[in-house]
Design a protein that fits this description.
Helices cover 56% and strands 13% of the residues. It contains 13 helices and ten strands. The chain has a four-stranded antiparallel beta sheet with strand order 4-3-10-9, with helices on one face. Strands 1-2-8 form a three-stranded antiparallel beta sheet, with no helix packed on it. Strands 5-6-7 form a three-stranded antiparallel beta sheet, with no helix packed on it.
Length: 480
């Protein structure tokens, strides 16, 4: 995996070199600009109606959100933002994966392919996962516990009073019954909840040792072994005997090979138990054993997660654009009664439609304080069109088309029709439209309130559960 992580970094470095001439700010935005340029060069001359349709839809959405900015610049900024965001996520994720790999491989337990460091006395065993590859055989995997370094007899006597070992309670271990024993027993030295000390004796240590080890690899038929348990509590003692039938183990060739390797590990562990390191067996008969430590490296899964997160992030950018359009439409609907009412008010005061739009645009520039409102941005666009020489009828029609809201389409058609044909009832029609708009705004506000109540339902249920837990727990403990 390290080569994959380094290759990704090399690709980023190469892209950084290729994008040095780009004028964008920031390395990732320059790389995004270079990739966008290369993509346009590749797609130049190729016509894909699906991509063209998606691009036109994107242009329409962006133009609706910011009509005062050139749509080509908005599309470029949109793609640059998306590309740079994905590049940042993948780069950061690759660094995390590289760090995880280095952390996992920085302190291996297997040294020079032959040594495993032991823990000092009292530090516990060292769990290690190893793979053994024997010449001409399949690779075998072992989960092995390297015991902590043992002390000499003199050291053991000095530390004996501080050494208490608790073994499992069950005697059978993985066996089904004492009449059919072919796996190691667990001969406990104490029982939980009882003050006894238990010592074990066996009638055949070659078959069952006092630590419960069952040596039945060389058995050809079942044998009976008598186990004696000595219970001791202060001055009290008692003996209990029971018979155990040890049956031979049936091994496959693969299992037999595995057992031979385990025996070699046990022999080496016994030989080097007083040493700082444990030397692994190098040969099995005339076949060489190649040891390799199996390191739990989860950085590859982290990379997959990072790439998936980058894809989700890229997809969410498109969703965010649709959400902005929904908020724009809602804001336009909420501001519509105010716009119609102002038009009726200014026209009632003797202003023309043109002057009424200019007045609203001027007031917006003076009072906005940096706060952007979509409807007044559209009115400012109408004023720019009028000042650039476009006819009033066309400017009002464009207002409705840009807003893409039925109310503004109706208002634009009403104003442009009045310019083309003339009408004495325009002021009355605007006042009536204002009354209808306020009624629609009331119904919209009611709908938004119902939606807000629905969204609050889940938090309210969670709070109810929390309150019930707070009440029930003290009541429950009061009965104990």
């Amino acid at each position: 995996m390290i080569y994959l992580y380094l290759m990704i970094l090399a690709v980023y470095f190469l892209l950084w070199l290729l994008s040095c001439r780009e004028k964008e700010k920031g390395p990732f935005r320059r790389i995004a600009s270079y990739l966008l340029y290369r993509q346009q060069r590749i797609e130049r001359g190729k016509h894909n109606w699906k991509k063209d349709l998606c691009r036109r839809q994107l242009e329409e959405k962006l133009k609706r959100l910011q009509p005062s900015i050139a749509v080509s610049k908005q599309v470029r900024d949109y793609y640059l933002t998306q590309y740079s965001l994905v590049l940042i996520v993948v780069f950061s994720g690759d660094l995390l994966c590289l760090g995880a790999w280095v952390s996992a491989h920085s302190s291996p337990l297997l040294i020079d392919g032959s040594y495993i460091g032991r823990n000092s006395y009292g530090s516990g065993e060292v769990p290690v996962e190893l793979s053994a590859r024997i010449e001409g055989e399949e690779e075998e995997i072992f989960e092995y516990l390297v015991e902590e370094r043992q002390y000499t007899e003199e050291e053991t006597e000095a530390l004996y009073e501080n050494a208490l070992e608790i073994l499992p309670d069950a005697v059978l271990g993985d066996n089904q019954s004492l009449e059919d024993v072919w796996k190691d027993l667990e001969l406990v030295t104490g029982l939980e909840g009882y003050p006894f000390e238990i010592a074990w004796e066996s009638s055949s240590y070659a078959l069952i040792n006092t630590d419960g080890t069952v040596n039945n690899q060389e058995l050809t038929e079942g044998e009976i072994v008598t186990l004696t348990a000595h219970f001791r509590y202060k001055q009290w003692s008692a003996d209990e005997q029971f018979c155990v039938k040890v049956n031979p183990v049936i091994y496959t060739n693969r299992e037999l090979l595995r057992e031979h390797v385990k025996e070699l590990l046990q022999i080496q562990a016994e030989k080097t138990k007083y040493d700082e390191t444990m030397i692994l067996p190098a040969n099995l008969g005339d076949k060489a054993i190649v040891w390799k430590e199996i390191i739990d490296d989860g950085s590859g899964y982290l990379l997959i997660f990072i790439i998936f997160a980058a894809g989700v992030l890229y997809w969410s950018c498109g969703r965010e654009l649709d959400q902005k359009l929904d908020r724009r439409k809602r804001e336009l609907l909420l501001d519509y009664p105010e716009i119609v009412n102002k038009l009726a008010l200014y026209m009632g005061a003797g202003m023309t439609i043109r002057n009424a739009f200019l007045k609203m645009s001027e007031d917006y520039r003076k009072q906005s304080n940096g706060k952007r409102k979509y409807v007044y941005e559209e009115i400012a666009m109408v004023c720019h069109e009028l000042q650039s020489g476009r006819s009033e009828a066309e400017a009002y029609d464009h207002l409705g088309k840009r807003c893409q809201v039925q109310s503004y389409i109706k208002l634009g058609a009403l104003l442009s029709q009045n310019i083309r044909k003339g009408s004495n009832d325009l002021l009355q029609m605007l006042r009536q439209e204002a009354d209808n708009a306020f009624a629609e705004r009331k119904s919209l506000a009611k709908k938004l309130g119902e939606e807000a109540g629905t969204k609050l339902l889940l938090p309210m249920m969670i709070m109810l559960c929390v309150v019930m837990v707070i009440i029930m727990i003290p009541a429950y403990f009061s009965f104990l």
